[in-house]
Amino acid sequence: NLGSAEDLRDLLIKRLRRPVEILNFGFGACGSERVCLSVLESLDYEPDVIVVYAGHNEFISVSNPATRVDKHGRPDRRRALPDVRLLQFMAKAAFTVFKPSRSALEGMSRSYDETEKRPFYDAFRSNLVKIADAARGRKTPVFLCTVAYDTQILRLQPWQSPEAKRAAAAPIEDLRAALLLRPDSAVLEFEYGRRLADAGDMAAAAPHLERALLLDPRPIRGNTTINSIIRDVASTTGASLVDVHGAVAAAAPGGMPGSDYFEDHCHLNEHGRAILIQTMADALVCRFAPKVEPQ
């Protein structure tokens, strides 16, 4: 989402009036286990600060073995990419050049029920705590960012299943009744929320759209649980919190960002990226700008 980081660097140079160098350790489709390793390695460079923006890829990470098994626990060779950084660089380059289709990207993630999701959330928390503890041990400030995501699309291809097609054709009263019988249906929650949003009632739509993302059996982005973990770890470890999702949501109608700020489910477009850069810069300037003593 940050891209080359040149825009953030230039903004910081302008506002801090000092040289700034940014080392971007980000990889495509990597989860927090790789981010944690990258942070531990980056500490050897004695950085002034570490900024972590992670949480979208916990269920599709190319470096997390748990995401490379099928529903029976057997290795899935279609998603098996060894935990080797050179191969990850190659994969990132291939994604950039060949632009895989949305259906191919959706296939990277298998389905998970709510019980199966819990270990991934626990691992995410554990990795963030390791990052914060390691940085504190080296007296390096660490900023944990909430992750921004599109709340107005359920999946990359949300209307493929028969259930989704029936929901799209059903009257809103039938959707409300169906939700009473199936409160754990991501498709019903999303379609009901979408209808409310289309009617202009974003306040009523918001909890249904957010709950749909939580219930989605193929999590391919951050959600309220991911961001709650980020906030909690920042609070308990003393890390600084940068609320990127909150900033993007504040700019969106009804606080529910969609295609105005995103290229897809989680990748920001130029408008969303501008908010991310501005939000990060504000936090860093607040921390590192010279203090002016009163005369």
One letter per element, helices H and strands E, the order comes to HHEHHHEHHHHHEHH
Termini distance? 42 Å
Roughly what is the average pLDDT, rounded to an integer?
84
**Helix content range of the residues, please?**
40-55%
Q: Unreliable segments (pLDDT under 50, ≥5 consecutive)?
A: 75-88, 100-107
What class do helices, strands and sheet pairing give? mainly alpha
**Rough outline:** globular
The largest sheet is:
3 strands, parallel
> How many beta strands in the DSSP annotation?
3
Strand content: under 5%
Number of helices: 12
> If you compute it from the alpha carbons, what radius of gyration comes out, rounded to the nearest whole angstrom?
20 Å
Strand order of the largest sheet: 1-2-3
Which key terms come to mind for this protein?
295 residues, mainly alpha, three-stranded parallel beta sheet, 12 helices, globular
Description of the structure:
The protein is mainly alpha-helical. 51% of the residues lie in helices and 4% in strands. The protein has a 3-stranded parallel beta sheet, sandwiched between helices. Helix 5 packs parallel to helix 10, helix 6 runs parallel beside helix 8 and helix 8 runs antiparallel to helix 9. The longest helix has 24 residues. The chain starts with 5 loop residues before the first helix and ends in a 7-residue tail after the last helix.
